[in-house]
Amino acid sequence: MPKKNKNEKVKEENKVKIGIIGGSGLDKLDIFKDKTEIKVSTPYGDPSDVLICGMIGDVEVIILPRHGKEHQIPPTQVNYRANIQALKDQGCTHVLATTACGSLKEEIGRGHLVILDQFIDFTRHRQVTFHEKFEKGPVHTPMAEPFDKELRDNLINSCRELHLTYHPKGTVVTIEGPRFSTKAESHMFIKWGADVINMSIAPEAVLANEAGLKYAAIAMSTDYDCWKDDEKPVTWDMIVSVMEKNTKNVTKLLLNVIPKIK
Fold first, then answer.
1. CA-based nearest residue to 19, from 56, 45, 44, 46
2. What is the pLDDT of residues 223-248, one digit of tens each?
3. The pLDDT value given to residue 25
4. Does some domain include residue 6?
5. What DSSP string describes the chain?
6. Which one of 27, 30, 225, 230 is the catalytic residue?
7. Count of C-beta atoms within a 10 Å radius of residue 66
8. Domain CATH number, residue 185
9. 223: annotated active-site residue
10. Does the annotation mark 237 as catalytic?
11. Is 2 within the bounds of a domain?
12. What pLDDT, on the 0 to 100 scale, is given for residue 240?
């Protein structure tokens, strides 16, 4: 086998490979013409499902359904460490996450997309770090800006090009689940400054940052949680109904943005 020259090695090291973590309503993303599936394991256990591999243009992409293809894994039981490690082991450099979310603001309507820029972690029962021991000294990962700015800018530009209804920033509060909030909690999160609410993004974003992966998240508003007196409190059927109508927008966004990522 011929040896790779220096330029080829540099090109390979700089190669973009994108992991997509499909959330609620996007567990079965189908954006490849030719796809392969691979089953992998990690030192942290198995990821949520097989990895679905393919190409979008000339970019290698791997899709991983966060809750499994049949949405069989509740939020707390998702092995977030294995999911992120599996994508890193396969050479992913970037991660685009999708998630359903509840709106905590009147102006974020059903079907609107939010390109998240901050999170509040209200989970309590999850493995949220790879660093269980400081074997080589303390590791405290900066988290002031948890979502990659360049990825976010690309997503915002693509939303604008596609004329999607979107919000260029937003703070998500991640709760433990699988239950929905009480009214008292919903109002508390609003007072904290959260714009939307979900059950997955915070630990995932932390782990992606620890792993050195560029990470951004597309949140789709499906409901108003339970803070609005003139709206019915959120139900799972409500979420599914909105996602079914708007999944095509997230798919269009992913197909548009991926070729732009450098």
1. 56
2. 999 999 988 888 988 888 888 888 88
3. 61
4. no
5. -PPPPHHHHHHHHT--EEEEEE-TT-TT----SS-EEE---BTTB--SSPEEEEEETTEEEEEEETTTTTT-S-GGG--HHHHHHHHHHTT--EEEEEEEEEE-STTS-TT-EEE--EEEEE--SS---S-SS-BTB------SS-S-HHHHHHHHHHHHHTT--EES--EEEEE--SSPPPHHHHHHHHHHT-SEEESSHHHHHHHHHHTT-EEEEEEEEEE-TTT-TTSPPP-HHHHHHHHHHHHHHHHHHHHHHGGG--
6. 225
7. 25
8. 3.40.50.1580
9. yes
10. no
11. no
12. 84
Structural domain contains residue 34 = yes
Does any domain span residue 4? no
Strands 51-56, 36-38: parallel, antiparallel or unpaired by DSSP?
antiparallel
Question: pLDDT for 75-86, tens place per residue?
Answer: 999 999 999 999
Q: What is the residue range of 66's domain?
A: 15-130+145-260
Given the residues 30, 89, 223, 230, the one annotated as active site: 223
How far from chain centre, in Å, is Cα 57? 22
| Residue-wise pLDDT tens digits, 147-174 | 999 999 999 999 999 999 999 999 999 9
Distance CA 111, CA 85 (A): 31
* Residue type for position 238: M
Contacts of 139 (CB under 8 A, 6+ apart): 131, 210
Name residue 101's amino acid: C
Contact of 77 with 123, CB cutoff 8 Å: no
Residues 61, 211, 250: CA angle, nearest 5 degrees: 40
Residue 149 to residue 84: CA distance in whole angstroms? 19
Q: Is the pLDDT of residue 27 over 80?
A: no
Question: 137: which residues sit within 8 A by CB, 6+ positions away?
Answer: none
CA–CA separation, 175 vs 200, rounded Å?
8
**Domains of the chain: total:** 1
